[in-house]
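Postdoc handover notes: sequence design on the structure in folder B. Input tokens:
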């Protein structure tokens, strides 16, 4: 189901053209990554999606009741704790105090907010303020979730948690769109990638399929240093690697040469 659609959208500020003839549709269940250089117009597209900006030409249609947005810079509240801020935001969005409090603590626990939920907002680092920003966007299940560089400033553990949260949100029927510079994050999260160059949508591609390789360790290997490995998932029996299909043979060969035992190999995402 189409959740948001930009039809031949252009955006100007005075004589400066930011976007030109952008046509983009995001459907329920999709995770769409917008990539491109700084100043290419990615953030402007996100603001148009959620209604924070209006097109100079063209149209934007949203079929979403609950819309959540995480900006690239989060203006945190000086006087409130993280928990109090999220409880307040939950009430604004129609949740009961108890439900808002429980959901806030659940999200902050998953994101591992340093200092805990009662930490005053003014004392939060940039990375921890970002965790609160992400939590406020997910207090209610959104139908459209839009995030501008949401991984910026997050620690490694929160990187993984955020990817899980976005995947879960899409699986529950939301359309998710985000900007990101890291190719590894894009490959491991997005189901579709849109490239914007000089204000124009120049590429619209589906993600290549990924192959999941589960193995029992042999000689020590730091798989995170291998460029073809998108994700490393340690577990009790060993490790599971996510590798782009078509480039997984080299990973398997490396594993076998170092005495690793391969238990399963399966494709997990189709074109």
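Designed sequence:
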């Amino acid at each position: 189901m189409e959740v948001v659609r930009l039809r031949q959208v252009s955006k100007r500020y005075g004589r400066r053209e930011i976007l030109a003839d952008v046509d983009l549709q995001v459907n329920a269940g999709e995770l769409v990554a917008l990539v491109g250089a700084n100043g290419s117009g990615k953030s402007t597209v996100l603001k148009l999606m959620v209604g924070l900006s209006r097109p100079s030409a063209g149209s934007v249609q949203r079929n979403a009741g609950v819309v959540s947005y995480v900006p690239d810079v989060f203006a945190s509240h000086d006087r409130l704790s993280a928990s109090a801020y999220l409880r307040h935001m939950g009430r604004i969005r129609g949740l009961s105090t108890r439900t808002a409090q429980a959901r806030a603590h659940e999200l902050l626990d998953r994101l591992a907010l340093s200092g805990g939920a009662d930490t005053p907002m003014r004392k939060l680092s940039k990375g921890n303020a970002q965790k609160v920003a992400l939590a406020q966007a997910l207090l209610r299940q959104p139908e459209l979730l839009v995030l501008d560089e949401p991984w910026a400033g997050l620690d490694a553990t929160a990187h993984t948690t955020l990817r899980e949260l976005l995947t879960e949100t899409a699986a529950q029927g939301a359309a998710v769109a985000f900007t990101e510079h890291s190719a590894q994050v894009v490959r491991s999260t997005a189901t579709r990638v849109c490239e914007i160059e000089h204000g124009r949508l120049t590429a619209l591609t589906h993600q290549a399929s990924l192959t999941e390789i589960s193995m029992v360790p042999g000689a020590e290997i730091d798989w995170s240093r291998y460029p073809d490995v998108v994700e490393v998932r340690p577990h009790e029996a060993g490790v599971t690697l996510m590798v782009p299909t078509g480039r997984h043979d080299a990973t398997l060969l490396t594993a076998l040469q170092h005495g690793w035992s391969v238990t399963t190999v399966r494709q997990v995402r189709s074109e």
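Context for whoever picks this up: The longest helix spans residues 156-171. Don't rerun without checking with the PI first.
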